[in-house]
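hi!! sorry for the late reply, been swamped w classes. u asked for the two structures so here they r. pasted raw, havent cleaned anything up. first the sequence of the first protein and right below it the tokens
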Amino acid sequence: MARFHVIIPAAGNGSRMGAEAPKQYLNLHGKTLIQHVIKVFDQSTKINTIHVLLNQEDAHWRSTYLHSSSKLQVHYCGGDTRANTVLNGLIAIENQVEADDWILVHDAARPGLSNRLLNHLLSMLENDDVGGLLAMPLADTLKRADSEQRVSATIPRNDLWQAQTPQMFRYATLKKALIAFGGSPTDEAEAIEALGLKPKLVIGELQNLKVTYPQDLAVLSALLSSS
């Protein structure tokens, strides 16, 4: 029977936040963002292992109190890109997993994932032939800008979704997709798509947003306070 393993790439420096520490170590309601992330997977009875992937120069993990978990393993295998980091992580755990085990890749700075949403994703995808990801249908009108930041086109939003994480695929398929991809995919689903497969979209939640800019942290704090 296939098992479930979580990979949390946390090797980035979060430069767009303009903070002293990488964004996964910023505080939200008394815990670091990555603590919130680890906790939700630790609480799930279906999740077997959790793997945090760090940059070799990471100076914050050991000096920050983090939620301990018997499921948790840390790997100092960060790469130049997210895709490289995830691939390095897959290689690091290859002796612990089977080819058809499920891998859930989740952003270290996406702490709003709820237990309910995680369980929904697992139930929707565990018998799927391909796997898939959480995503939100776009509600806003999209504009394409020119070099002078003026509107050059309006893009129809019909059938457009904003990708979230976790993104969930079989170990062997995801590893093959990342190795075969020409360049650096923006997410795991893009690499899977390049194999000719069609990941399933599972509706996510607004609070499952990725903290990228300073205002995101304030928005997320408010959303979690009201939930």
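now the second protein. again sequence first, tokens right under
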Amino acid sequence: MGILDNKVALVTGAGSGIGLAIALTYAKEGAKVIVSDINEEHGKEAVEQIKSAGGDASFVKADTSNPTEVEALVNATAEIYGRLDIACNNAGIGGEPALTGDYSLDNWRKVLSVNLDGVFYGCKYAIQQMEKNGGGVIVNIASIHGTVAAPLSSAYTTAKHAVVGLTKNIGAEYGQKGIRCNSVGPAYIDTPLLESASGDMKEALIAKHPMGRLGKPQEVAELVLFLSSEKSSFMTGGYYLVDGGYTAI
């Protein structure tokens, strides 16, 4: 018996990193999982991992910055599995580093279109589907930069702060409808996104964490699992850090 038995979950950006860990953890705990990613190869590999472990999963490709594709993704979830109980809006990008005054308009728009607009679309269409069920759970992956600055990444910081605000609004608006919404703020996690970082850069990032290391995707997934389950049944509109002490100093 898993704590998500008979639930249907959707995870965006589930082809690698934190999203993959979340999808695998959901499946391990009994959920039927829709794996979505813009990278079809990675998404299908994630589905095979879940099936090889005895879980139930399907892949649906979607670009979260496109509202039409996100609506189709949620509709496909309902068509494949009959309902949507859990939505984890995880897909995101970092953007190019630059001071705010030098930040290109194109890069600003690109980061916000994925990291903010994409989360809004995911919430909007998930809510519409969950209202048909009489309830559901949304978990939005924000960042430590939903509460502290990320110098040279003003678009990223802006988007992640906004995700925290959006989450609070949904929690306040939909609590009486049985829909809970929380956000998670990971610090720097050892994922493929950091593979391009130099050794010196990685050491500098590690030094910002009082625990003396980067986080692991599974450590984020465990918090997301808790927030997605009935174990957190009286929690909504919150923002929860998994940051190795990054924001404590």
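hope this helps!! also noticed smth abt the second:
The chain has one domain: 8-189+218-244.
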